[in-house]
Amino acid sequence: MDAFQYKNYDHCIVNLIASIQKFYHVNPSHSTLSIADQIFLKKDFKNVIVMVFDGMGQNILDYHLKDQDFLKKHQYTTIHSVIPSTTAAATTSYLSGLTPIETGWLGWSLYMEELDKNVDIFSSVDSLTKEYVGIDCGETYLPYISIGKQITQQNPDVKYYEFWPSFKKDGCKNLRQLQKRLLKVCKKNEKKFIYVYWDQPDHDIHDYGTKDAIVHKHIQNINKFCEKMAKRTKDTVAFISADHGLVDVAPILLYTYYELMACLTRLPSLDSRCTSFSVKKGYDKRFVNLFHQYFDGKFILLSKKEVLKKEIFGVGRQHKLASSILGDYIAFAVDKYFFATTPNFHPFKGHHAGLLKEEMLIPFISFDN
């Protein structure tokens, strides 16, 4: 079976955004998503909303909801996440309309050659010490033109709004507050595009696993939230999906594989289920042999050259920093394991960024009125 069978850059996040670009007369960055195009043909909607619920993959939805629940009844199809199926890569694709290879947002922890550090790209802290590196690495090294800016530049009469959880300044404390703010904006007599990001169920799946009761409650609450939004809005189309799904996982203590770690020039980066390795000169053969000896069946190892040739991280123009970020080899998870690269790793019960169906398939849900 092809480990990369769920790689699909014609039926994924960027194609949904391409349809939105098309609706607003912005030149689409990629091919459009036909089902979204058909929905847009219904009318010239005043409000267009994209809601991204972090980690709400198809598997999570299927496990925690019944067929008669609102989200299931309003699901049109299943689409694909990008590779790696992780928040830094996927939400940036939502916000830019570009694939990870185009944005350079290729994982949670990225090697910044100019700083010679692995950096947690969202917070710009050193991935090892967690100290701020002194510069916003995303804005400085990996900037992109947001979908909001693309739309408003092309359409001066359209307003753009973003809604986030409370980890951002003035973010929403809960779904009730989000609903109140969102409804207020939707009632404004203006055309608008709205991007909504919510950090559940992903946040708690990491700690409790995919099937825990607390996750069930999150999905039930999200279902109710979306149903209320559909009832209380007018002249609105909403597209509801996720950035990725998750699977229940177990750690591999990579830092204890001393012979393999001795082959590396620096700590691995990207993500713990899609992991980049930079190898010392002359150690390639040893590294590859050891990796296969230890991890065959759990991870697939490809050279950077193979990854780029196969367009694993997306189609389009390669970002100028992508080559240095990717290192020499990339390992892709095809089983339940994640790499713990240092002793002070987080004991995840659920994770993502690998190639499994559960991580890669996300629901395409929509309501309009």
Automatic annotation (TrEMBL):
<protein>
    <submittedName>
        <fullName>Alkaline phosphatase family protein</fullName>
    </submittedName>
</protein>
<dbReference type="InterPro" id="IPR017850">
    <property type="entry name" value="Alkaline_phosphatase_core_sf"/>
</dbReference>
<dbReference type="Pfam" id="PF01663">
    <property type="entry name" value="Phosphodiest"/>
</dbReference>
<dbReference type="InterPro" id="IPR002591">
    <property type="entry name" value="Phosphodiest/P_Trfase"/>
</dbReference>
